[in-house]
Amino acid sequence: MIIRDQKLRKVSNSVFQEAKLSEDRSRPLEWRRNFNQINLPLKNIKIVNTCNIHDVDFDFKNSNATPLNLVKTDISDQIAIKGIVDEDQIGDRLYFAIEEGEDNIFSIERSPGNIIVSIKVGKPTKEDTSEDVERVPPGLYYGLAFRTNFKPEEDDMFLDLTAPKEQLLSLISALRADTNSTLNVVAKLLSFTYEVDDALREPSYPQDIIIIDANPCFLAWANVTSKIGRHYLISESQYDDGDEEEVENLYQEESTPEKRLHEELLKVAQSSTKSLNGLVKAIWVLIIVIAMYVFLN
Predict the structure, then answer these.
(1) pLDDT for the residue 165
(2) Whole-number percent of the chain with pLDDT over 70
(3) How many CB atoms lie within 10 A of CB 65?
(4) Residue 248 has what pLDDT?
(5) Residues 267, 133: one domain?
């Protein structure tokens, strides 16, 4: 749990500790790095198509090449899904660790802006022959989570995810088929979490997550949900402590603008039908009265 004006000391690339040891503890509590799963329900979803045609080389050698000789064709296209995380639905809280100077002391703060998610077509990572202990294995669709605060009016968190083209096009097809569909993204984010939460927190409970600089993240899965046909809101079963009889679930049909319009039209039709039936009966009564009058005279 993040407290106000929290200060942490970085002791290694994988561990933060409380900067100030509490008197009632024998050691500082830690924030440890691992891949944490984060659920990202999106809103304001956009599908962005980009076509590249030309590019201009940079003249590193200051040669005498004319500007036109630096132009080259760069024909390619890119498609991406972009959206903003709906913070009314996300449970986890994301923080940034900001270095304050010497002694590896970091302050913890939340970004005041949005959490922006982008999923685009990526290429699998290649074999890394370096001796870096944290080199990326081959075959992964690499992504990054970072803070974008380069402009004074901009301070957002950005998750730049990649996926195979076939899977991304499948998501886009489902989104285009139903404009009322919802998109939920689940990512694995390399980040720091509180050791107490790691030990005691229920999996369904929200957690505090800290990132520093640019952090690797990977798209675990994404799903598009469309509502087909009628939907019902199911209330919880109620129990009577006396006779232990289970009361049947109460199904309340979910109200939507389309359904309300349908109900109003149905009421008008039913009302018109009743009026028409009354008119038919009145005509038959009139016919019978006329026939009796003719017969008696």
Answers:
(1) 94
(2) 79
(3) 11
(4) 45
(5) no
Determine the Cα angle at 50 with ends 46 and 54, to 5°: 165
* Domain assignment of residue 275, given as a range: 256-296
pLDDT in tens, 118-133: 999 999 999 887 777 6
Q: Kindly state whether residues 284 and 156 are assigned to the same domain.
A: no
Please indicate, yes or no, whether residues 165 and 52 belong to a single structural domain of this protein. yes
pTM: 0.72
Residue type, 189: L
Which neighbouring-strand residues pair with 79? 49
User: Residue 133 burial (CB < 10 Å; 0-12/13-18/19+)?
Assistant: exposed
Looking at residue 235, what is its pLDDT?
A: 56
